Amino acid sequence: MILIKTAEEIKRMKESAEILSKTFGLIKTMIQPGIKTKEIDAEAEKFIRAHGAVPSFKGYQNYPASLCISVNQQVVHGIPSDYALKEGDIVSVDGGVYYKGYHSDMAYTFIVGNIPPITQKLVTVTKESLFKAISKIKEGVRLGDIGSIIQQHVESNGFSIVRDLVGHGIGKSLHEAPQVPNYGTRGKGHELKEGMTLAIEPMVNMGKRHVLVANDGWTVFAKDGLPSAHFEHTIVVRKNEAEILTSYQYIEN
Ligand code: MF3
Ligand code: CO
Question: Quick one: which atom of ligand 1 is closest to the CA of 175?
């Protein structure tokens, strides 16, 4: 069942999302050569807890950290570690905040120093696909419409949609119905209604779409070893548009 949130619930989700968005502002300042991904995780956790919130991911199905940090060919669910970022890396950071009973979820792919133009294009196209999808969302749009917009933009640029992982409803639980695939057919799937809250999260591979899970049981990586990018926002469906609850403003301004 897809839950419809009340105005009060959405207000709390917005507060949760604001803490998460500010956490990403802090993360941005730490992205530089030499920093260990577990150092980023530790600072983000401190920041979230200092705001009276809890990192959504820590302990979720025994996940051991507050962020997922996935570098280069890693797609999602990378566990923060002793790995030190280096010039030329792309770094997908995914975070969740639980506040006043509600979750928010967002992701951003950062760039460390200079990267090849094709990798820059991968990151740009992935982000564009997220915003293209969000710009089409309003009451009455179907899940297949969202998936198809993302798929079309990504594939027309020569990249691949990861299909083994999807976006999702979000609210009192981190993952609620419905699943939100990043591929699909126009006119198919559930119809969106005002008050539904969704995490939209395209995961895009430079090479083929196939992924594997590492021996740590979490890290999803591209089978062909080529880079992968990930962007995510938590949104609420409104009558005539989507309202984006999370924000990149603290990263980009
Ligand atoms: N952010 C991921 C998602 O979008 C969830 C991470 S799984 C966790 O669904 F275990 F790390 F929490
Ligand atoms: Co998510």
Answer: 9
